[in-house]
Predict the structure of N-acetylneuraminate (7)9-O-acetyltransferase.
Amino acid sequence: FKGGDTCEYLLSSGRFLGEKVWQPHSCMMHKYKNSEAKNCLIDKHVVFIGDSRIRQLFYSFIKLINPQVKEEGIKHGNIPFEDKSASIKVDFLWYPEVNGSMRQRIKSWTEGSVAKPHIIVVGAATWSIKIHNGSNEALAQYKINITSIAPLLEKLAISSDVYWVLQDPVYEDMLSESRKMITNEKIDAYNEAAVRILNSSSRNSKAKVKVFSVSKLIAQETIMKSVDGLHLPESSRDTNAMILMNVYCNKIMKPIDGSCCQPQPPLTLIQKIAFCFFTLSIIGYLIISLIHRNNYRKNKSCTDLESGEEKKPAISTPNVSTLEMLLHCFCKLGLIMTYFYLCDRANLFMKENKFYTHSSFFIPIVYILVLGVFYTENTKETKVLNREQTDEWKGWMQLVILIYHISGASTFLPVYMHIRVLVAAYLFQTGYGHFSYFWIKGDFGVYRVCQVLFRLNFLVVVLCIVMDRPYQFYYFVPLVTVWFMIIYATLAVWPQIVQKKANGNCLWHFGLLLKLICLLTCIYFLSYSQGAFEKIFSFWPLSKCFELNGNVYEWWFRWKLDRYVVFHGMLFAFIYLALQKHQMISEGKGDPLFSNRVSNVLLFISIVSFLTYSIWASSCKNKTECNELHPSVSVVQILAFILIRNIPGYVRSVYSSFFAWFGKISLELFICQYHIWLAADTKGILVLIPGYPMFNVLVSTFIFVCVAHEISQITNDLAQIVVPKDNSTLLKRLLCIAGFFSGLHFFSAMQDQSRH
């Protein structure tokens, strides 16, 4: 930890990921769009002063504001640029040497009531080397001139952002005869002089000229692609312009994926209350632990001197043990949430941008698949989609999704489309699992609903408080929660049709199918009526849960993307349980699911369907068009996988305990990755150990998985306490939870008011 000023790192250090992606040391760089650049620079005046290299930087900078600009200005003269829609002025002033003329221009901004530019970018040296044939006298004069200019720049730096651009190296073999005297040795001497003189007299930290030295590093990697050995290729100067934009705009625009130059966000009122609560929980747990330890020592079994019998220690009351368990859970959770906050809100650990390569995605995939196969064991039961098999399915899917996120594979469309199927498969299991439970058990009690809702939402609610994020930000949990409530409402609404009732009269099966058809109709209507969907979820209090950035569009997009797959899961469960009831499938150990002939035909069709979908997904050219088809066709690959996995008796009788272990904590893994494995709310990668990418991933992954496992245990323990089976006690707890959310809403409203 070297301090929180990531601007210094952005301006001075970094490396290339691949050929074109620049990665600053310790922080993430945002790629600014034209609209964002305009919003940042509205009513601003930017000035570039220097030679032809600075002119190149000027053009790359204004192209971030208006990409249509052409480099048609006078080569050795001033070039103005103005964007009237945003009142932005950007000027290039031709001063190829650090001399009296440049000093006079800079001095004019320090005197009287002349409007000062908001951003000043200065740099020059190669002309001095060229004109004076690289003489030592020219270097001495350069030092004198820069010494006279430095105090003026420092004075301007009090109210403006002033950058001194160090000279980039040249590719000496490619220089023309008239430029042969411009050597890298001379350039280094001029740069050294500038760095030593600038800020030497400034004691005020706010009055510092920022030295833009990162372009030297960029040039060292790319100058050999220069057309003349002196001027940088376009991609390199575009990178320099983007760095400039990040240095100035990140603190204004606060982009999620632009951690460079962003100050640590202040603690909100709710975060402060949460911090106090967890602190009190830790203190309370320590006090109770000390009291219990002292009581244990006092009551420790000892020999009675008169009778020679052992005295048993007193048994602690259930109330005390429940309180201790509650405080123990909150104590652990408080420490874990502190780690979350330090990783992704405090400027303590480094963050880096993702960079996709095929090897960074496919090699880990092959590795975990080999590991998964290695841990093959026999299942306890051989039913279709038994518990061990569904845990295994969730586990390998979650691991693939994690690798997809950390490798940045969303930029590769075939991988993106296959990952969309994995997310759909999770929702398919939601439909299948909850339908099966309600259909077989017929348990529509409040206890079951509260248990499921608590287990799904507990971690997300805590993270919304600690990390200051809206509920919809963790989109998968709202999605699963809403679909669970839809499944519950569909089956619980009159008439309640369950397996026991349907077995007595076959007509009830048609009644259930009618319910499912009504559900499908509602889904179809909402999917093609965005206005109706948004009206439903824009009503308070639903709007507080489903709005993101002031609207529910993100929620509409997420819901629409997998709108049919939960229905498909429910329908599959209904058909499977009906076939099972009428003994039309064989689920014995080692037996094929159907007769040999039917099994072989279905297996062949499944493999062909699975491969056909993969070929279609791999040939996708447009993400928008493929997303439109995805809700209707994703079920093909899901059903194909289920049949391939379950038709052969041997395959159905084994499972991977490695994948199943991860499957049991898949929800926690999915949510925790946002802040303690990835960084900047999934936009980047958390760096605990800089300079060693593989070792860093190993360490951060180990901590991440341990934390997810621990949170899973905490959630299970708290679910038993917060959601008791006794209805009267449960009602009291629900009233307490309602009071908690009312208080949360009140403090949230106070926060919003103070922000405005």
Observations:
- The two ends are 34 Å apart (CA to CA).
- The chain has three domains: 14-253, 349-723, 727-755.
- The first strand starts at residue 14 and ends at 17.
- Residues 302-319 have pLDDT under 50 and may be disordered.
